[in-house]
Design goal:
The complex is a heterodimer of chains A (496) and B (93). Helices cover 10% and strands 23% of the residues of chain A. Chain B starts with 11 loop residues before the first helix and ends in a 13-residue tail after the last strand. The chains are: A mainly beta (496), B mainly alpha (93). Strand 4 of chain A pairs parallel with strand 1 of chain B, so a sheet runs across the interface.
């Protein structure tokens, strides 16, 4: 009976937090809400080496949102029901963020609540415990006890929670910085910052001097030399693909526009310490950016040595890499000459106005699945299987899903997985539907973040995640990337 | 604002849903149980009781394995939406 650590924790101690620029409380005064949230964070700051600085950016470590019902993650709220809020463990993207049910009646004053009103301070202090890496504790009275217990007037962080946070981040160092044994000379003039000062901090290795609590400053950058990747996965071994026996290709034309939503604009403007000017005053989230069809200029042939990938798949033991309307094929003798060529030259059943594919994988039954927008195209070798394309909902995926980012058969348990945005699903190939206990949050695959480009299992049995122009090798046992920093895809997979 | 619904009916279905939502029971585990006969069905019955006991223990109420008044009261209480027992991928818990 004690605290529980989930396993993830922040690598830096000077954390930033921000109210969401979109999902703000519809019934609360914003300035007072921010004040309560700052107090809730201070509970953890007073007990550990952590410091929290409010910024005005959705890129902050901890972004606080007030949302209703289904709000884009795998944990919908229930109106004025029993679920009050939830938060995500430390990590990139949504890691660390806290969501509060905007249908609840939140109380900002520390007075005792009742059956209807709920203390925002009490719930926020609990949720920020998750944001820092603590799971639920079965100790009654602990802050991380999952059931709501209200808050005592002169609240002191219970012992169980203090042990938990200090076990992860170490206790607060109260000694004066001058006589602190591990104090090291400052290399740049200190800039005095205090907890309540709002400043836009950019995530870069720097020396942070924090005098309000006379904590010694910490060198946050790593003095060691940048790690050189100390391994090279076994180079791809190649063997010829068995010849196909082309059959007459039925003329199938299915027209579907595929498009890739514009990347969500990044809000990052200066934020004065007083309430933000012309703040949106209603809780209707901004409309999703209308998907724009990716232009298909004549010269959209991707640069082999300088591109990201839309999809990567091992098909009949050969590596197929897809980008825009084209694909490369890497066989036993290396990259096939005259590639990249149009995808539709090999798979003519795909839409004529194809701009790109979202995901590709070879199913256990050796059929080849192409995900294009909201549709699945299934091929038996080069021939579109009768009855396809089918909508994603046919696989049990939600109606609201616009596209799949990646798909693979995971070597670790030979199960099929689909990834999209911040969520992923396990797919039952026999049933032909996703399993009940999904979607789950992508943070389960530690280190790859959200919105991946592709994933596949290479011939060495390892799993590789792709995003942008780089990739990670993934440790299936530890469920985390084997190296924090991405490796360049062109060098390894294209032999550039 | 509508008042909080604290009298919602608690039956075996809502209990199963609650146990699945907060990580005490894997989704779909009981449906499989209903299809099986004999001792396999019995073992799934035990899983349900074990899940209830685990919830009762975590919540600090008497551990009876039954959906008794104290358990119903606990399930009506406001709480955090995160699971109490974190899920893992690849079949490990």
């Amino acid at each position: 009976k004690r605290f529980a650590k989930q396993g993830e924790m922040w690598k830096h101690t000077n954390l930033t937090w921000s109210m969401s620029s979109r999902l703000i409380p519809s019934q609360l005064n914003l300035h007072e809400t921010r004040h309560v949230l700052a107090r809730a964070l201070d509970v953890w700051e007073q007990a550990s080496r952590l410091t929290f600085t409010e910024v005005n950016s959705d890129e902050a470590d901890i972004v606080v949102s007030f949302a209703r019902r289904n709000h884009g993650d795998a944990y919908p709220f229930d109106g004025r029901g029993s679920i009050l809020a939830h938060a995500f463990f430390p990590g990139s993207g949504r890691g660390g963020d806290a969501h509060f049910d905007d249908d609840e009646l939140w109380l900002l004053q520390p007075k005792n609540d009742d059956e209807e009103g709920t203390s925002l301070f009490a719930v926020a202090a609990h949720e920020f415990g998750h944001s820092l890496g603590l799971s639920h504790s079965s100790v009654k009275g602990a802050l991380m006890f999952p059931w709501y217990q209200g808050i005592q007037p002169n609240f002191v962080l219970p012992e169980d929670d203090r042990h938990g946070i200090q076990d992860m981040y170490g206790p607060k160092v109260k000694k004066k910085w001058a006589d602190n044994p591990n104090y090291r000379p400052i290399q740049t003039p200190p800039t005095t910052t205090t907890t309540t000062t709002t400043t836009t901090t950019t995530r870069r290795p720097y020396i942070h001097y924090h005098d309000r609590h006379h904590t010694n400053h910490r060198h946050d950058y790593n003095p060691r030399n940048p790690e050189k990747p100390n391994y090279y996965p076994t180079p791809p071994t190649y063997y010829p693909i068995p010849p196909h026996h082309p059959r007459p290709t039925p003329e199938t034309t299915t027209r579907s526009v595929t498009n890739r939503p514009a990347r969500y604009p990044n809000v990052g403007h200066e934020y004065p310490s007083h309430p933000r000017p012309n703040y949106p005053n209603h809780n209707v989230p901004k409309a999703k950016p209308s998907p724009t069809v990716r232009p298909t200029p004549s010269s959209d042939i991707p640069d082999t040595c300088n591109t990201s990938y839309d999809a990567v798949a091992l098909i009949r033991g050969e590596l197929f890499i897809f980008k825009n309307r084209y694909h490369w094929r890497i066989g036993s003798q290396g990259r096939y000459p005259q590639y990249p060529i149009e995808i539709s030259r090999m798979w003519s059943g795909l839409p004529k106005d194809l701009t790109h594919v979202d995901a590709v994988y070879e199913r256990p039954d050796k059929k080849i699945a192409f995900f294009v927008g909201r549709k699945l195209y299934l091929f038996d070798s080069q021939y579109l299987v009768r009855g396809y394309p089918k909508p994603l909902t046919h696989l049990g995926l939600p109606e609201s899903l616009e596209k799949i980012d990646a798909a693979m058969v995971w070597g670790h348990n030979d199960k099929t997985y689909f990834y999209s945005g911040t969520m992923y699903w396990k797919f039952d190939e026999e049933e032909g539907r996703v399993e009940l206990d999904y979607p789950r949050d992508m943070s389960m695959w530690k280190g790859v973040g959200y919105n991946i480009d592709s994933v596949f299992q290479w011939r060495d049995g390892k799993t590789y995640f792709f995003k942008g122009k780089g990739f990670w090798k993934f440790n299936d046992l530890h469920m985390r990337v084997e190296h924090e920093r991405q490796l360049p895809s062109a060098t390894f997979w294209m032999k550039c | 604002r509508t008042a909080r619904n604290t009298k919602h009916n608690i039956n075996e279905k809502t209990v199963k849903n609650y146990l699945e939502t907060f990580g005490y029971l894997e989704k779909g585990q009981l449906e499989v149980g209903n299809l099986l006969m004999g001792d396999m069905a019995q073992s799934y019955e035990d899983d349900f009781r074990i899940a209830i006991k685990t919830l009762q223990q975590f919540g600090g109420i008497p551990v009876t394995g039954e959906i008794d008044a104290a358990t119903k009261q606990l399930m009506r209480q406001r709480r955090c939406g995160r699971p109490d027992r974190e899920l893992h991928e690849g079949g490990r818990h």
